[in-house]
Amino acid sequence: MEGLFSLLLLLILSLVAVFFHLIRILFNAPVDFSMDWNLFLSWIPLIIAFFADNLTKRFGRIPVGVILLSIIWVLFFPNAPYMITDLAHLTVDYDRDLTWHDVIMLFFYAEVSLFNGLVSLYWIHRAWRRVFNRSFTWLLLVASLPLAGFGVYLGRVRRMNSWDILHDPGAILQNLLESAMDRTALVFSMEIGVLLGILYLVLWSIIRFRIRYTKKA
């Protein structure tokens, strides 16, 4: 199945991130597995997009299946860029070794989580391209970026998570309505969306250049 090498590489990077955390624990620091949980959550949209990409490649146009997978994907996609906001937990003490370890560790967790999100975006985008027309595909792509930012806002500021959709949908609806009228939420969503869009454009350009170069070679 296409993409297995990418999954293996991302798994190795995730294990390296966990290794940084284990080093932190060896410093007799309090154990906090929230980073590992957030990293695990970033794998959910990646796995969903992996299956959507391979299903559309094997079976062609399956709009109902892709729509269902896309809905689940967009609900969990914000978990990938969410870890960027964990950098807000950093405390600075330039004479303390743990300060620099924490900077590297948190950045690495955020980086791997972001990689998971960008690769998942590429795979789900490729699945959309096989099923929908070009204009609708790009509409879905552009819309998913600020929606991801909005999801990060709900998680970081409103303290909501993807699972609340199942066990507390009322709270989700209330937070959605309140946040939709919040200027900070809108600005935050757009800026995260722009960040993801720029990073995805870089990833897309690199992959497309590699494909074209390989064909010419």
Automatic annotation (TrEMBL):
Keywords: Membrane, Transmembrane, Transmembrane helix. It holds the Pfam family DUF1361. It comes from the Bacteria. The chain crosses the membrane at residues 7-27, 33-52, 64-84, 104-124, 136-154, 185-207. InterPro entries: DUF1361 (IPR009793). Coiled coil: none annotated. This is DUF1361 domain-containing protein. It comes from Dyadobacter sandarakinus.
